[in-house]
Amino acid sequence: MDEDRLDNIGEEPLLRIARTIRRLVRGESTDIGAKDEDVRGKKVDSEKKKRDGLTAAVAYLHSRGIGALFDFDIDGDVGVDPNHMTLWFSQPSLGLPSKEYYEEESITELYRSVLERLLVSTSDPDAINSEELEELTESHVPSAKFTHARVHKMKFWPPWPWPPWGGDEDGGGDDGGGGGGGGGKDKLNRTERAKVESKKVLEFEKKVAAASLDLDILYQDPYATYNPIPLSNLTSALPQIDFPAYFSTFAPRAFPSRLIITYPSYPSSLSTILNSTSTSTIEAYLTIRAALSLAQNLGTSTESWKAVRTMEEKLRGIKKGAVGERGEFCVGKVESALGFASGRYFVNETFGGESREKGTKVITDIVEAFKASLRNLKWMDKESADAAAQKADAIRVKVGFPLFPDTRRASSIAGYYNRVAIDEHTFFDNIVSAHTNEQIWKWMKLDRRRNMDEWEMYASTVNAYFNPPANEIVFPAGILQPPFFAQDWPGYMAYGSFGMVAAHELTHAFDSAGRMYNQQGKLEQWWTNATSQGFQVLQDCIVKQYSAYTIDDGKGGKVHVNVSLASTSGENIGDTGLIQAYRAWKAQYHASYDDGNEYILPGLSYTREQLFFISFARAWAQNIKPESAVQRVRTDPHSPNRYRVDGTVYNVPEFAKAFKCSPKAKLNPPREKQCLLW
């Protein structure tokens, strides 16, 4: 909360990161004297030096949770053994939220200006010029340009200059004549150089985006993204990275010889892009990746913070200069950095009484309603229905809080975070240390069995998830709070709001992607062909329905909810599970009524059935800027909240019956137009 201290510290924490990136990319020690042997007595292998430098810089960023060039994750091998934790290789996140933004001139020009500002703010204006240093190392003797004071300065931090754009040692590539210039020829000042280099970084990112897999396939096609290969295939496709050296940064328990790649063509495409890009542009790209990730942890008066904020305002439609409460920002930072620890406090404060038991009952009632509905589905034969019931029974239900680290035991939490260095005066470093700790824990999973007590969310997270390889549905205490749940709510409210969440996650186990995983979480065709064909007809119905929905783009135009043909179908199918929540509520209604748990709220003239649907819809109430809505459509597999309500009840005849809708009402279509999966 000490914003004055952050402003006084200024850019220095980010500058330290940038200097380290530059030092690593160039393969140099912080002490030039340590390199004398290489400089004076040996011919340095420039290609090896570039490879080692790039590997070290990328590993440095990844070890601190900063994405760049590619991404590794550790998860189950869904084709062989879903509980054997295996290495997965994938594409990186982009500087802009999705590919589509790189095609909008107004966005890319603003983004380029942000990159330019970040390159300037992370530069070292007093550092020695790169051409002068190159001249010194190539001649093997001190240049006349170097005074004693300047050479002495080189022995200390930082040893290298920034920006490094006077000449490209590797000869240009796509840099439009920027290669190989002699020292001193480039008279551009650092702001003008940053402008030139920002254009090159933007073009580099456009190429990476074009080489990346579309998000709807990446997130929703488990067969397309399951491509096991030997490590040697990756090392040959992407020779610019020394993967054994990269892995050594994370000290995994087992050295990987096999991995799974989500998009087989990406490594070779990235290799081609790297070959056509100068080292200085790659260095600038890596520096920008760090700045975009970490600038928000600087003081709000810093240029880096302001630059990143400018982009955020544009992409999210935030009023210029409008900054939220600092307290909310700090709470969010504590949760993201120390979420299992803060989750313990959250649970102790908010998740007492019968919250866990009552929440679990809603979930298990919905599982039973789902199983009962299977025998009535015309598109699913008995063999597939029996297998689906078995999968539903096999799903692990987790409610409230994780047991690794154990939310109930302070010692378990302390052990998990014992590597995190915290100091009240170094907010930026605290965040980086927490990110590093998470990466260590991630890589410790490699080649181990899945930890069934581990969660992918904190206890305080207002969300839930289905994990296909683990075959589990997980509901943190954060979503077992209003407006989704309270232990003393009447049943129709609890089943309408939280029941909708529970049914959504359960239905994911049988949606367009989840149905491809069997009871053990393994990729397998476990439905009959006839059932699969019947499901496809209904999935196509859902796709057609939601493809007709649009949102305003804030510029007088419309954007379709389905950016690609079926980009939201998995989540929309998940939302059709609302009918299971309704059936579960009805199945327990009489017992709940007798127990006094179906009381009518005072002052309301609605029926309980109507209040069930009102409770469902209320949870999705939202005010959203057009810019944020567009970003969500492009990056989020869920439909906009409006259509998560209207599109869902469109396919629930019980809704129209509860509200006695006219046959002409928009949300009471003819039965033949409805997509009735369950």
Q: Explain this structure to me?
A:
This protein is of the alpha/beta class. It folds into 2 domains: 312 residues, Neutral endopeptidase , domain2 (Neutral endopeptidase, domain 2), CATH 1.10.1380; 266 residues, 3-Layer(aba) Sandwich (Collagenase (Catalytic Domain)). The chain is built from 27 helices and 9 strands. A 4-stranded mixed beta sheet has the order 1-2-4-3. A hairpin with a 4-residue loop joins strand 6 and strand 7. The longest helix has 25 residues. The radius of gyration is 28 Å and the shape is globular. About 11% of the residues have low confidence. Keywords: Hydrolase, Metal-binding, Metalloprotease, Protease, Zinc.
